[in-house]
Every structure is written in structure tokens, then in C-alpha cells.
């Protein structure tokens, strides 16, 4: 292996890949999706009209106190009489009006209008009335504001994860399965698109070089092994760049939006403390090793056909395998992570990079995941070594009878050591 | 110096190349001729180290061609191919670096070659925007940019117009001056005759002719006679030792089975004195090629 030439090939593949439209789309896709979602949300918010509700009570103090409350998408306005309210309703200045009476220290209220307000508005009104009633009662019982606060405080409920260490001790940790699940789910989708993009890129490139006889020139400059590993290195570097670029953009966008209240609320809801670094590292390793595994397969398939146009057909088996893993992961593993088939497949190299992160997020041990990772890495190495040998022969076979015929011919030639 | 000894290649039962031997000294041009499917490309692939020979060996300066020798090779494949989306410079740079050259060395040489081969276009033009002729020139640049010592050209003249064919021919002759070993295959015997020092002809994988161009021509003897005389076609045909007669207007094209018959023919033709034409010549390479290939229609 000539490392200088390996690097020439890798950097050439890297340059071409990073400049290709599919790479840029890959990097920006997650953000485009989020942005579109954000825009749709904003449009829907804008479209929502504020409901104006008139408040009437025989005791104007009550109506006044209620009208002071600020509620989302709701404007409360004190009115002087039911008649006045009806007149305004007719003039479409009000959507509804609310009549509040106090009987035996309890608030009895009725909403009138051409249409009864929607559930969200009713719930908001209910809440406003509840807090008004509470403060009225508190006044009656002469409670201090601290006492009211104490009374109102909800009971606590939280989930804890139990795990057993090897010496039989019980360890508890905060529940983080939701976040872990979301992360493994994201990793699964990311790997899927990464593989689809790079598999077709690498197969196309190799088939094209073969078809245009560029391959013969390259192989007269250096050996097939150097070329094969150079291509893989270039693709892996591009995949790493995409991973880093996506991570970087994610960081930048969180930084820019750090004052955005809804984002902060969302982040506050997420329990990051329960996520062990080992989980993240395993996730990244699965993404990388998985992409490499499929890149090797795609390169092998690409070298079996003679024209760039045939490359998509050649990587069809690769795509189907990937698709099978993806379906198994998103449909079966999501609903039933301890499913027998899922457990078996999470150790099989073709599927483990998709399934293991999901199984892991659902509480499987690190031990199993590590074994699965080792299996994946070892089979990638074996596959790469085998493919590099096949590659030398494949790139000189111009068989028009399809990839299986080419594969058979290559294997025969390999045995005879052409 | 390239030495090929008893080279053979079998694909299963098919004997693609059998017992091929020749050598090319530094500063020599060898033409490899043969019909389609005669084994030329297989021979080139073995010279390039893309295929392992079944038997025999290829030696460059006494050593087997391995990784070390690959930087010395320049190869132009028969089917032309470049990356269409790359610029001329990116393309030449990539192939140059693969032959172990540095960026700055290649840049310098590229300017020279662009001008020398009269490539119309800018270094930053994409390959797909170039005409076919210019693409072929760029490919020749990628073949020669690293100043190879062993240059292998598979059908370099195919598809070139007469002007570009002349540029190609000049480039090959320039390589000889630089002391490179050049081997090329061609269907065009005129090119071979003009620039080759040596010739190897293969048929169905077997070497049927090998040697210096003039020696090969001489070995067939002067068996061609062009004759303009009172003799008729039938009269000439009746002469013992005449193999074939073709009539072109008044001129007869006569093939002899023995050069000595020429004298007899001359005496017969000039028995009444003056005749406009009697010319006894060697066969052209094309005629030798046709003769050896045995199939006149496929050329």
C-alpha cells in the first residue's frame, strides 16, 4: 500500500463528495426540516384569532378581577349589562359573554354566544375562574399568600430507572429513556440517509471510472488495494465532515436561539443528566462503523457493473438490506424492543447499526452493545479485505450479463489468481 | 529497456496471448499490430501489471514491473475517458499526483503541454465543455505529464482528424527523442510505417511477425511489380511465378511468388523497346498485414 497515493485518491474523493449537491443537502436537511416545521407553526399561530369574551356580574368587583387576568389568545372585557353584552355580540365586537354569579361562596358561571367556545378556550376560562375562586376563599379564611401557595402546590411524581450492577447492587438514575429514544431514533434516520447518499455516490463513481476506462489508467499508476481503500477513506472523511457540520450547525442554532423562550422550555423538559457519555459514544461509533460497512458493500457492488448508469441497479441489494433494517428498527423495535427477531438482528452486521441504538435506548446492557459493535467492526474489516481482493479482478471484468454473472466470473478469476 | 519474454495468457481454455517475445530499447518506438481480438489489449494489460501472465515475464531494466516502476509508465487506454465534471487542471493534477509528481511540477508542465498541443480552452474549463479533439489532447497530457519512461498507447490515432493525428504523431516522435520506450497499437499501417522502429504483429494471440520495419519489408522481398506495357493481363498471368494480377486502367499490379521472376517479366515486357512503367517494390505494411491476417475485408 502506497500511503501517498492513498491520500491523493482519498482527498480527490473527499473534494468531489463535499462539493456534490447531495452532501450539502445532507448537511442542511435536518435544519430545513426544523425550519419548515417552525414556519408552519408560526403561520398557524398567526392564523389563530383572539377570542374576545365579555364578562358580566352583578358584583362588578368579580368581573373586574376576572377581566384583569391575562390568558393566551383570549381577551376578557368587562361589560355593564347582559343587554349591553348581547348588543356587542350582535355587532360582532364580542365572540361570547360570560355571566358570573356568586352563590354560597361558590362561583357559578355560564358562557353564552352564537357558538360555544372551543375546548382550549373553555379550559382557559375554567382555570381563570378556579384561581379567582381560590383567592376569594383564601380571603374568607384569612390565609396569607404563602399559605395559598402551599395549598396549591401539586404533589410530586417522577420516574426512576433501576439497574443492577454485577455485584447485585441496585442503582437508580433519573428517567432518560425518552431522550435516549429520541437520540437513537435520530441516529437511525441519520445513518439511513448517510448510507443511502454515500452508497450511491461511491458506487456511481467506481462504475463510472470503470466504464470510462479511467480505472485502467489509475490501476496502472497504483494498485487496486490502494485505490479501494483510498476511496473508502475519502468517503468516511466526508461522512465525518457531515457529522461534524451537522453537530456544529446544531450548536450554532441553539446558541442563536438561546433567548427563545419556547426552546428554553423544551430544553428544560429534557432530562440530559441520565444520558451516559458511553451511550453517545456508542451511538457515534455505530453510525460510523455502519456507514463504513455499507460503503464497502456499495463499492464492491459498484465495481461489478461497467457503466455509471448501472450503479443504482447494482446497489439495489444494499439498499434493500438497509431498508429492511430500517423498517425493523422503526416499526418492530420501537413497539417491542425486546422482540426476539430484533434481539437477534441487533447483532447481525447488516442491521446492527440501526437496531442496536434503539435496543440500547430501551435499556439493553452496554455489554451487548459492545459485543455487537465488535462484531460489526470485525465484519467490516473482513468484508473490506475480501472486497479489496475482489475489486482488483472486478474492475477488469466487463460482463454484460448483470452483476451476478460478473460476480461469478470474478470469483472464478480470483480462484485462478489472474 | 523493456524486455518481454515468452509472454502467455490463458482465460480458461481460451489462449488470448501465446509465446510473445520482443524488446524495446530506450528511444525506440514499437508498433503492435493485429486485428480486433488478436490480444493487443491483453498484452498491454500484462505490461501494465493489471493482469498476471499465465507464463513468461515482463522486465523493465531487468526488474519485474511492480509498484516502484508504476510511476515511470504512461498509459493511454483505447476508450477515451476523463471525468466530465472536472476541470482540465484538476484532471491532470490527479493523474500526475498518482504518478508521484508534486503539484508545482505538474502546474509548470501543464502550461507547456496546453500550448504545445494547442489545446483550445482554459485550464479551468470543465472537460465536458471541450470538443472531442481537445478532450483527446487533454488525455494525452494526463498520459505524458509525468515524463514517463515507458509509454503505452492503445490505438492513439483512432478518431483523430488529420491535423490532430499529425500532432499526436509529433508527440510520439518527441518521446523517442527524450529516450522513452514507446509501444503503441494501431490499425492504421501508414502511421506505423512512418514512425515505428520496430513492429510486432500478432494474430489470434500468436506472434506472426517481429523485427525492424525495413527488415520485415525486405524479408518479403520485392514481389510487387507495377507494369505499364503492351502486355495484356492474360499474357502476364501465363508467366510462371506470377501469383496474382490486378488491372488498374492501363497499369497492372502484379504479385510475384519469387522476386527473381521480375527479371523475366521485365525482359518480356521490353522485348519491343520502350515501356512507360516497370517498378518492382517491396510490399507495403498494409499489404503485409492483410497477407498475414488472411482476411482482407476486416481492417
UniProtKB/TrEMBL annotation, chain A:
Q: Tell me the leader sequence span.
A: none
A Pfam short name: ABC2_membrane_3
Q: Which residues cross the membrane?
A: 21-44, 182-203, 232-257, 277-302, 314-334, 340-361, 373-391
Write out the entry's keywords from A to Z.
Membrane, Transmembrane, Transmembrane helix
**InterPro entries, alphabetized:** ABC2_TM (IPR013525)
GO terms for MF = ABC-type transporter activity
- UniProt-annotated location(s): Membrane
Would you name any one GO CC term? membrane
Q: Where is the ABC-2 type transporter transmembrane domain?
A: 22-388
Major location (coarse): membrane
Q: How does it sit in the membrane?
A: Multi-pass membrane protein
Protein's UniProt name: ABC-2 type transporter transmembrane domain-containing protein
Organism of origin? Ligilactobacillus murinus DSM 20452 = NBRC 14221
UniProtKB/TrEMBL annotation, chain B:
**Residue ranges occupied by any ABC transporter domain in the UniProt entry:** 2-229
Q: Signal sequence: where? A: none
GO MF term set? ATP binding; ATP hydrolysis activity
Keyword field: ATP-binding, Nucleotide-binding, Transport
Which PROSITE patterns does UniProt cross-reference here? ABC_TRANSPORTER_1 (PS00211), ABC_TRANSPORTER_2 (PS50893)
**Family, per entry:** Belongs to the ABC transporter superfamily.
Q: Which PANTHER family match?
A: ABC TRANSPORTER ATP-BINDING PROTEIN (PTHR42711), ABC TRANSPORTER ATP-BINDING PROTEIN NATA (PTHR42711:SF5)
Q: What is this protein called?
A: ABC transporter ATP-binding protein
Q: Which organism is it from?
A: Ligilactobacillus murinus DSM 20452 = NBRC 14221
Top-down, what is the taxonomic lineage of the species of origin? Bacteria, Bacillati, Bacillota, Bacilli, Lactobacillales
Amino acid at each position: 500500500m502506497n500511503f501517498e497515493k492513498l491520500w491523493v485518491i482519498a482527498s480527490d474523493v473527499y473534494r468531489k463528495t463535499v462539493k456534490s449537491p447531495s452532501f450539502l443537502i445532507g448537511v442542511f436537511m435536518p435544519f430545513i426540516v426544523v425550519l419548515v416545521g417552525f414556519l408552519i407553526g408560526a403561520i398557524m399561530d398567526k392564523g389563530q384569532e383572539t377570542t374576545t369574551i365579555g364578562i358580566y356580574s352583578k358584583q362588578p368587583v368579580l368581573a373586574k378581577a376576572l377581566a384583569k387576568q391575562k390568558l393566551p389568545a383570549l381577551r376578557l372585557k368587562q361589560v355593564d349589562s347582559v343587554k349591553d353584552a348581547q348588543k356587542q355580540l350582535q355587532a360582532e365586537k364580542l365572540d361570547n359573554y360570560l355571566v358570573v354569579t356568586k352563590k354560597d361562596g361558590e362561583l357559578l358561571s355560564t358562557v353564552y354566544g352564537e357558538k360555544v367556545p372551543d375546548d382550549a378556550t373553555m379550559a382557559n376560562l375554567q382555570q381563570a375562574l378556579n384561581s379567582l375562586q381560590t383567592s376569594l376563599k383564601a380571603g374568607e379564611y384569612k390565609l396569607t399568600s404563602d399559605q395559598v401557595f402551599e395549598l396549591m402546590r401539586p404533589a410530586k411524581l417522577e420516574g426512576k430507572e433501576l439497574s443492577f450492577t454485577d455485584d447485585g447492587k441496585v442503582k437508580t438514575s433519573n428517567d432518560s429513556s425518552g431522550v435516549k429514544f429520541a437520540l437513537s431514533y435520530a441516529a437511525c434516520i441519520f445513518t439511513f440517509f448517510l448510507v443511502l447518499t454515500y452508497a450511491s455516490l461511491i458506487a456511481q463513481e467506481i462504475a463510472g471510472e470503470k466504464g470510462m476506462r479511467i480505472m485502467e489508467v489509475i490501476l496502472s499508476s497504483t494498485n487496486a488495494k490502494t485505490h479501494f481503500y483510498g476511496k473508502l477513506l475519502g468517503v468516511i472523511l466526508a461522512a465525518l465532515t457531515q457529522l461534524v457540520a451537522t453537530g456544529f450547525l446544531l450548536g450554532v442554532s441553539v446558541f442563536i436561539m438561546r433567548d427563545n423562550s419556547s426552546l428554553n422550555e423544551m430544553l428544560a423538559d429534557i432530562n440530559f443528566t441520565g444520558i451516559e457519555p458511553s451511550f453517545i459514544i456508542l451511538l457515534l461509533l455505530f453510525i460510523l462503523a455502519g456507514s463504513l460497512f455499507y460503503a464497502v458493500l456499495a463499492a464492491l457492488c459498484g465495481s461489478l457493473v461497467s457503466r455509471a448508469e448501472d450503479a443504482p441497479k447494482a446497489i439495489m441489494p444494499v439498499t434493500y438490506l438497509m431498508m429492511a433494517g430500517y423498517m425493523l428498527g422503526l416499526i418492530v423495535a420501537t413497539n417491542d424492543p425486546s422482540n426476539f427477531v430484533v434481539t437477534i438482528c441487533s447483532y447481525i452486521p447488516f442491521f446492527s447499526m440501526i437496531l442496536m441504538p434503539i435496543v440500547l435506548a430501551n435499556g439493553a446492557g452496554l455489554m451487548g452493545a459492545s459485543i455487537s459493535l465488535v462484531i460489526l467492526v470485525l465484519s467490516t474489516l473482513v468484508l473490506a479485505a475480501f472486497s479489496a481482493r475482489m475489486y482488483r479482478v472486478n474492475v477488469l471484468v466487463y460482463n454484460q450479463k448483470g452483476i451476478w454473472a460478473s460476480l461469478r466470473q470474478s470469483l472464478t478469476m480470483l480462484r485462478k489468481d489472474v | 529497456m523493456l524486455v518481454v519474454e515468452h509472454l502467455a495468457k490463458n482465460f480458461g481454455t481460451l489462449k488470448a496471448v501465446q509465446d510473445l517475445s520482443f524488446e524495446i530499447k530506450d528511444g525506440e518506438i514499437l508498433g503492435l499490430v493485429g486485428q480486433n481480438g488478436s490480444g493487443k489489449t491483453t498484452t498491454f494489460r500484462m505490461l501494465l501489471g493489471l493482469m498476471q501472465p499465465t507464463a513468461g515475464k515482463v522486465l523493465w531494466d531487468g526488474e519485474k514491473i511492480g509498484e516502484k516502476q508504476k510511476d515511470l509508465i504512461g498509459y493511454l487506454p483505447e476508450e477515451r475517458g476523463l471525468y466530465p465534471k472536472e476541470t482540465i487542471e484538476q484532471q491532470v493534477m490527479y493523474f500526475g499526483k498518482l504518478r508521484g509528481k508534486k503539484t508545482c511540477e505538474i502546474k509548470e508542465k501543464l502550461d507547456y503541454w496546453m500550448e504545445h498541443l494547442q489545446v483550445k480552452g482554459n485550464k479551468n474549463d470543465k472537460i465536458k465543455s471541450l470538443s472531442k479533439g481537445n478532450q483527446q489532447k487533454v488525455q494525452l497530457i494526463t498520459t505524458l505529464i509525468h515524463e514517463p519512461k515507458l509509454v503505452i498507447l492503445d490505438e492513439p490515432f483512432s478518431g483523430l482528424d488529420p491535423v490532430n493525428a499529425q500532432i499526436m504523431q509529433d508527440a510520439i516522435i518527441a518521446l523517442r527523442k527524450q529516450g522513452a520506450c514507446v509501444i503503441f497499437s494501431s490499425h492504421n499501417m501508414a502511421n506505423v510505417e512512418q514512425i515505428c522502429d520496430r513492429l510486432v504483429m500478432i494474430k489470434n494471440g500468436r506472434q506472426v511477425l517481429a523485427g525492424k520495419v525495413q527488415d520485415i519489408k525486405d524479408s518479403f522481398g520485392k514481389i510487387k511489380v507495377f507494369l505499364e506495357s503492351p502486355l495484356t493481363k492474360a499474357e502476364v498471368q501465363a508467366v510462371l511465378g506470377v501469383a496474382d494480377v490486378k488491372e488498374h486502367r492501363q497499369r497492372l499490379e502484379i504479385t510475384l511468388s519469387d522476386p527473381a521472376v521480375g527479371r523475366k517479366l521485365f525482359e518480356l515486357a521490353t522485348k519491343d523497346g520502350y515501356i512507360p512503367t516497370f517498378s518492382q517494390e517491396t510490399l507495403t505494411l498494409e499489404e503485409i498485414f492483410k497477407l498475414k491476417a488472411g482476411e482482407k475485408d476486416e481492417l
